[in-house]
Amino acid sequence: MDHTPIGLNPQVTQETITGLNSLLADLQIFYQNVRGFHWNIRGAEFFELHAKFEELYTDLQLKIDEVAERILTLGGRPLHTYEAYLQSTDVHAVKDISNGSESIKHCVAAFSVLLLRERALLQLSANAGDEGTHALMSDYIREQEKTVWMYRAYLG
Fold it and tell me: Is 133 helix (H, G, I), strand (E, B) or coil?
């Protein structure tokens, strides 16, 4: 077969699926970290950060679903166990973080991992003519760059 059912090169599509599964793992671990930040935040910034973390994990939940569905669209199978996520992620799982600044620093670090992975997928998808993956990564990058700027400004 020269092309997948959606007209893409099968070999390149497999590389994209592998990259998307790594991104899915990164998103899942980041999501769980942020849930922990939301639950455990303490101090004077509680109300502000508790709401901000809820906003963030809700957005991550949407992205997790979008990435998994993109993998399925490309003919792959999304990772779906925490064991697989932990083997495939570059985001560090953290626990027992209740300090606002420390939580935000972990978020910035996770976004740095996501942005590197998304840029690699953006380049791969551009070379493959995979507009669906390309548009998704482009949207994520634009949004996350702004978020990193805001979080870094918050940290001072």
Answer: helix
DSSP state of 90: -
What residues contact residue 115 under an 8 Å CB cut-off, 6+ apart? 141, 144, 145, 148
Domains of the chain and any CATH numbers: 10-155 (1.20.1260.10)
Helix/strand number for the chain, H first, E second: 5, 0
pTM above 0.90, yes or no: yes
Q: Residues, the chain, total?
A: 156
**pLDDT tens digit string along 76-128?**
999 999 999 999 999 999 999 999 999 999 999 999 999 999 999 999 999 99
- Distance of CA 9 to CAs 33, 91, 122, 128, Å? 36, 30, 16, 7
